[in-house]
């Protein structure tokens, strides 16, 4: 049973979190200060730091939630390995494109924020595990080969998405992933 105090803490957390995300999306991450977040949230500045050590921690939380939802989307069982992976990549890419300011902030601060780096590692591991599961259902079912191939596919997907976004070609990311994945899978099967 949740106590009144726990409910209040959860409400404060959600208020700060949702307010920050709205401000980041509207104005851009770098243009929003902690002072603006606390003012819009109607909380004391110290309360912000009880929940988030810094602004990038909000982005880390958003990224983890957003990617978890994308990864958990159902994928048809009766399709090829390549199509399963492309379906997963499409879900991830669509999730990223829904909130471009937040995605850009995540990429911009990933090198500086331990919390974003830790979340990226967990997300990559989750994607890799899902792809490894897909691979093991095919003729490429050797455990070691499946693990290595899954790792390569995650690198291919994330690298292509990041590069396409940096170049302003995020609309082409799926086409690039499909092309690169086709080559990689033909090498793996070959």
UniProtKB/TrEMBL annotation:
Transmembrane segments: none annotated. Gene3D superfamilies: Tetracycline Repressor, domain 2. Keywords: DNA-binding. It holds the Pfam family TetR_N. The keyword Transport does not apply. Residues 10-70 form the HTH tetR-type domain. The keyword DNA-binding applies. Residues 33-52 bind DNA. PANTHER family: ACREF/ENVCD OPERON REPRESSOR-RELATED, ACREF_ENVCD OPERON REPRESSOR-RELATED. This is TetR/AcrR family transcriptional regulator. The lineage of its organism: Bacteria, Pseudomonadati, Pseudomonadota, Gammaproteobacteria, Kangiellales.
């Amino acid at each position: 049973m949740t106590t009144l105090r726990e409910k209040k803490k959860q409400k404060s957390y959600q208020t700060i979190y949702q307010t920050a995300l709205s401000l980041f999306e509207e104005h851009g991450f770098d243009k929003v200060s902690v002072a603006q977040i606390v003012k819009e949230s109607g909380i004391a500045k110290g309360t912000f730091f009880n929940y988030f050590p810094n602004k990038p921690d909000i982005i880390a939380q958003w990224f983890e939630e957003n990617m978890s939802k994308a990864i958990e989307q159902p994928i048809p069982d009766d399709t090829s390995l390549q199509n399963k992976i492309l379906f997963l990549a499409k879900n991830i890419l669509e999730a990223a494109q829904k909130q471009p300011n937040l995605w850009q902030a995540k990429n911009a601060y990933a090198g500086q924020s331990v919390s974003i780096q830790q979340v990226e590692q967990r997300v990559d591991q989750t994607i890799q595990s899902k792809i490894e599961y897909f691979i093991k259902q095919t003729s490429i079912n050797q455990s070691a080969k499946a693990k290595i191939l899954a790792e390569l596919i995650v690198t291919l997907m994330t690298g292509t998405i990041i590069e396409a976004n940096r170049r302003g070609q995020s609309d082409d990311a799926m086409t690039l992933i499909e092309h690169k994945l086709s080559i990689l899978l033909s090498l793996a099967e070959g």
